[in-house]
Design a protein that fits this description.
Strand content: 5-15%
Radius of gyration: 24 Å
Bound molecules: flavin mononucleotide
Distance between the termini: 45 Å
Helix content: 25-40%
Order of helices and strands: EHEEHEEHHEHHEHEHHE
CATH superfamily of the largest domain: NADH Oxidase
Oligomer: single chain
């Protein structure tokens, strides 16, 4: 039951919800208003485009009413500011050892979860450690596991460099893997969905930018992913990541103990203009 409703007082019969529906399941009903017949409900993507596009907020679906949506007009970020955010986002490897405000923590996750998913599957799961103590506990367990493997000469092929991190930890108590961050985020998604890897990465990329826009430092963390997923896969179970999930990626985050003054200057972008000069020469069909 997708609960598609149209407010007859505010619907202008513009038909935009009908035209924009990717499943093309909305049509004008016998009463003259947009409707979804019971037999077509099953092919609804649950994308809510009908709710989003309605100029008068007349459409509600899946129990969601337009009045709870954010209005877009005049509220989108200034492109120059967004450009500076993208150019100025940095990998943060020094964190304050304090937990984020729980309201901000929750908001970052809620907003990142809005990211698109293939076929709108919406199955990305955020596994989080919400305190510095928990990350430190995990770090200690991972380091103990890595130490055991190093001592037994049992690190997997290609992962021998983890011995350096164990050595640095033993000598200096310097945490090269988790960077002594107060929080950890892992995105995972069921293997069964259309695009689990992409869904996780897009959610994390959204998290990354929104976190940094809020003054929160982030670090994409391939080392933590390798340690938890490939070298010590029992860590997955320990963290409650379902066995049938693709381990998307890991990210540590928290209040930065470092502030960058300016953007870096990568580029020029690698751009290859394919079919240059060919499209106009294509034979007419
Ligand atoms: C997929 C991915 C995995 C990464 N894994 C690590 C990591 O395990 N440890 C680390 O210190 N940095 C890691 N980084 C950060 C990169 O080294 C960093 O993005 C790059 O040096 C550029 O710096 P910037 O992010 O500040 O622009 C990772 C970045 C990406 C995109």
């Amino acid at each position: 039951m997708i609960d598609f409703k149209v407010n007859r007082q505010s619907c202008t019969l513009c038909g935009e919800c009908i035209t924009d529906c990717p499943s093309r399941i909305i049509s004008f009903g016998e009463d003259g208003y947009p409707t979804i017949t019971a037999e077509k409900e099953g092919t609804c993507y649950r994308c809510q485009h009908c709710l989003a596009i309605c100029p008068t907020g007349a459409v509600s679906i899946l129990g969601h009413h337009a009045s709870f949506s954010h209005l877009l007009k005049g509220a989108l970020p200034d492109p120059d500011a967004l450009e500076t955010l993208i150019r100025g986002r940095r990998s943060v490897r020094r964190f304050k050892q304090e937990n984020l405000d729980p309201v901000l923590f929750q908001r970052l996750l809620d907003v990142a979860w809005q990211a698109p998913t293939g076929v709108n599957s919406r199955q990305v799961r955020f596994t989080v450690l919400d305190s510095h103590d928990k990350v430190a506990l995990l770090r200690d367990e991972v380091m103990a596991g890595l130490t055991r493997l190093v001592n037994n000469n049992a690190l997997p092929d290609g992962m021998g460099f983890f011995a350096n991190f164990v050595s640095i930890w033993e000598k200096h108590r310097s945490d090269v893997i988790f960077r002594d961050a107060p929080h950890l985020l892992i995105a995972s998604a069921p293997h069964s969905v259309a695009s689990p890897m992409q869904d996780c990465m897009i959610a994390l990329a959204s998290f990354d930018l929104f976190a940094q826009a809020n003054g929160v430092g982030t670090l994409w963390n391939g080392l933590a992913k390798w340690a938890m997923n490939e070298i010590l896969p029992e860590t997955r179970h320990r963290l409650g990541i379902p066995a049938d999930h693709h381990f998307g990626y890991a990210m540590v985050f928290g209040k930065p103990a470092v502030h960058y003054a300016r953007t870096v200057q990568h580029g020029p972008a690698l751009i290859y203009r394919a079919l240059e000069g060919e499209a106009s020469e294509a034979p007419a069909l």
